[in-house]
């Protein structure tokens, strides 16, 4: 066998570098030389790591064990982007008109805190025969890979492009890392160019408008004149995000409430499931009078069923009163139809980043920025898969059964439900969603652990949600029977819907977050054409109310629908409008714009 090839492995974060080094050290026959100290980032060295010869890879195809060869693995990391782009000193504040920034040359530079990392990569690249880039497998990771590549080629020009490889992985689990070592590809230049184009656009537009609005405010308003308010920043994604918040605020401010009226009917279902049809007093004006039959409605086993007026509501009191009086004059209602049909509540589709953010906000009251920080840390610990993905489809080769089996050993609801899922043919392949980024699987648990062993509450809650969602995806749909009762009184029709849940299935594991109920239970079994007297028939009034301030769930949905940011950056843009004091988030996860935020959006609107 030929001598070992020295490889420099570069990860995006120190935690991923440590995980990679641990996997390399676990390879049979390898020799772990431990970490090297006194470097800009931790450097790990492991010798005699056997995997398919790197020099015959590069097309992303899996290489078999027949081509195995020893490799000397040097592993380290960066901390996100190495380089940054900005305008030269000739285009500083006050040196040019903001509009000049749309055509000014852009310089690539390394901040002082990144210089040590750059110098370390220059030195380590000189020792290497090849480079493997283990940056996150998204467009941003592809761009950072390109920055690392540029530095390594500068340190060791003999490497050339054919000695620089890209690893594709979604978790830091050993089996996936070993698979990535057997199917190395190249950096996707198209993705790199896409990120660079977006970065240049954001820089030019953001810098030009930031200077424009800051200078204009300083010129026209005393509180900004001395610069005490700082820079009033503009961002191509940040500003539309703020726009959604202000738009909802404006709807609230301009809202004019309206009075409306409606007719409300109720019947009573007895313990044996039949409808009680004895006479009752029919009253108006929102007052329900006592029932002349003292026994009716008093049984603890009886329950009311409410029927909704088909017209819903009217904004004309006189017309509503006329229709109400025609009903009271008739006195009795007639059953027009009673239909029943099977109904399913579908299990959820596999979990992508945007949906995880929405569910964490809705169920856990965890903001998107805090969620993504926790999810990234869970990923780095090997507990969940890569949390920045648009994919809602599992590949056919995904091994669901072994993953579910691993949860059987966990005490509590996870273990019990996993065992139930693997018995009586309860397991179902997950449904397929519409989106697939072709880079990562949906967000799934990678390692089965008892939630109470995760000490950080946010981490524990996010991990639990990911597990619940995954197990729900692999379950059967919930089954029920829906009944719809339609009755007619004079010219008016009233409708009630009832639901009897027959099999909860995936709802069991997703409790208490997911429920399925109409609040009515099973409706009485009555004959079409039969007549009865309602327990109550009331004319009621109400008033329309303004919408609430926009919730984080609604804001994420609007951003996703309108292409503002990406699944990986939506949380950052939401955080930015708060950091800039353009909007504030209240305890109920709703956003309220500040005076400055309102002024900026309204200023551009005018």
In words, what does this structure look like?
The chain is flat and about 95 Å long. The chain has 17 helices and 18 strands. By secondary structure, the protein is of the alpha+beta class. Strands 9, 10, 11, 12, 13, 14, 15 and 16 form an 8-stranded antiparallel beta sheet that branches. A 6-stranded mixed beta sheet has the order 2-3-4-1-7-8, with helices on both faces.
Any descriptors?
alpha+beta, 6-stranded mixed beta sheet, 20% strand, 18 strands, 606 residues
Estimate the strand proportion: 15-25%
- Number of helical elements: 17
Helix content: 25-40%
Which secondary-structure class do the elements indicate? alpha+beta
* Arithmetic mean of pLDDT: 89
What is the general shape? Answer: flat
For the sheet with most strands, the description reads: 8 strands, antiparallel
Number of DSSP-assigned strands:
18
Unreliable stretches covering 5 or more consecutive residues: 278-299
Cα(first) to Cα(last) distance is: 74 Å
Give me the Rg, rounded.
Answer: 32 Å
Short précis:
This protein is 34% helix and 20% strand. By secondary structure, the chain is of the alpha+beta class.
List the helices and strands and how they pair.
Layout: E1 5-11, H1 14-26, E2 31-36, E3 43-52, E4 68-77, E5 84-87, E6 106-109, H2 115-125, E7 130-134, H3 139-155, E8 164-166, H4 174-181, H5 189-220, H6 222-225, H7 238-253, E9 259-269, E10 275-276, E11 303-309, H8 317-330, E12 333-345, H9 353-364, H10 368-380, H11 400-407, H12 413-421, H13 457-473, E13 478-489, E14 492-503, H14 506-509, E15 531-532, E16 536-543, H15 552-561, H16 570-579, E17 583-585, E18 591-593, H17 595-605
Parallel strand pairs: 1-4, 1-7, 7-8
Antiparallel strand pairs: 2-3, 3-4, 5-6, 9-10, 9-11, 9-16, 11-14, 12-13, 12-15, 13-14, 17-18
Helix pairs in contact: 2-3, 3-5, 7-16, 7-17, 9-15, 10-13
């Amino acid at each position: 066998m030929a001598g070992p090839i020295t490889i420099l492995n570069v990860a995006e974060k120190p935690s991923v570098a440590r995980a990679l080094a641990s996997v390399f050290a676990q390879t049979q026959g390898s020799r772990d030389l431990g970490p090297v100290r006194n470097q800009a980032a931790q450097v790990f060295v492991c010798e005699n790591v056997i995997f398919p010869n790197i020099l015959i890879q590069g097309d992303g195809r899996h290489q078999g064990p027949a081509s195995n060869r020893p490799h000397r693995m040097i592993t380290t990391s960066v901390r996100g982007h190495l380089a940054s782009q900005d305008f030269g000193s000739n285009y500083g504040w006050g040196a040019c008109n903001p509009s000049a920034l749309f055509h000014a040359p852009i310089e690539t530079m390394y901040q002082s805190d990144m210089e040590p990392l750059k110098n370390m990569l220059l030195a380590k690249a000189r020792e290497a025969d090849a480079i493997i880039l283990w940056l996150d497998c998204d467009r941003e990771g592809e761009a950072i890979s390109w920055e690392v590549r540029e530095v390594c080629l500068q340190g060791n020009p003999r490497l050339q492009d054919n000695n620089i490889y890209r690893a594709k992985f979604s978790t830091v689990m050993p089996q996936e890392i070993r698979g990535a070592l057997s199917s190395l590809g190249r950096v996707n230049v198209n993705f790199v160019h896409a990120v660079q184009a977006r970065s240049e656009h954001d820089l030019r537009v953001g810098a030009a408008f930031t200077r424009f609005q800051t200078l204009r405010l300083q010129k026209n308003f005393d509180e900004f004149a001395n610069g005490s308010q700082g820079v009033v920043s503009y961002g191509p994604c940040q500003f539309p995000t703020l726009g959604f918040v202000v738009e909802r605020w404006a709807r609230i401010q301009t809202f004019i409430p309206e009075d409306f009226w409606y007719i409300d009917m109720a019947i009573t279902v007895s313990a044996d499931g039949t409808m009680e049809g004895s006479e009752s007093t029919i009253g108006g004006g929102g007052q329900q009078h006592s029932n002349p039959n003292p026994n009716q409605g008093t049984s603890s086993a009886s329950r009311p069923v409410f029927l909704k007026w088909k017209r819903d509501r009217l904004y004309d009191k006189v017309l509503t009163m006329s229709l109400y009086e025609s009903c009271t004059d008739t006195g009795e209602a007639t059953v027009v139809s009673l239909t029943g049909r099977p109904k399913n509540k579908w299990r959820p589709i596999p979990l992508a980043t945007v949906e995880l953010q929405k569910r964490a906000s809705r169920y856990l009251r965890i903001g998107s920025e805090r969620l993504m920080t926790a999810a990234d840390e869970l990923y780095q610990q090997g507990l969940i898969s890569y949390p920045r993905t648009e994919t809602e489809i599992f590949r056919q080769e995904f091994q669901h059964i072994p993953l579910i089996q691993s949860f059987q050993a966990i005490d509590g609801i996870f273990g019990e439900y996993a065992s139930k899922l693997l018995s009586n043919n309860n397991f179902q392949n997950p449904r397929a969603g519409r989106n697939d980024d072709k880079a990562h699987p949906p967000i799934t648990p990678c390692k089965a652990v008892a939630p109470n062993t995760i000490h950080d509450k946010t981490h524990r809650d996010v991990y639990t949600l990911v597990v619940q969602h995954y197990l729900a995806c692999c379950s059967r749909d919930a089954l029920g029977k829906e009944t719809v009762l339609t009755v007619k009184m004079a010219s008016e029709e009233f409708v009630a819907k009832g639901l009897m849940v027959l099999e909860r299935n995936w709802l069991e594991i997703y409790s208490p977050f997911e429920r399925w109920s109409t609040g009515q239970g099973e409706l009485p079994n009555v004959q079409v054409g039969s007549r009865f007297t309602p327990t109550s028939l009331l004319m009621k009034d109400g008033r329309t109310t303004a919408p609430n301030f926009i919730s984080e769930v609604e804001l994420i949905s609007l951003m996703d629908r309108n292409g503002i940011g990406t699944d990986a950056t939506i949380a950052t843009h939401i955080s930015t409008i708060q950091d800039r004091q353009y909007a504030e988030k209240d305890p109920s996860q709703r956003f309220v714009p500040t005076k400055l935020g309102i002024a900026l959006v309204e200023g551009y609107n005018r």
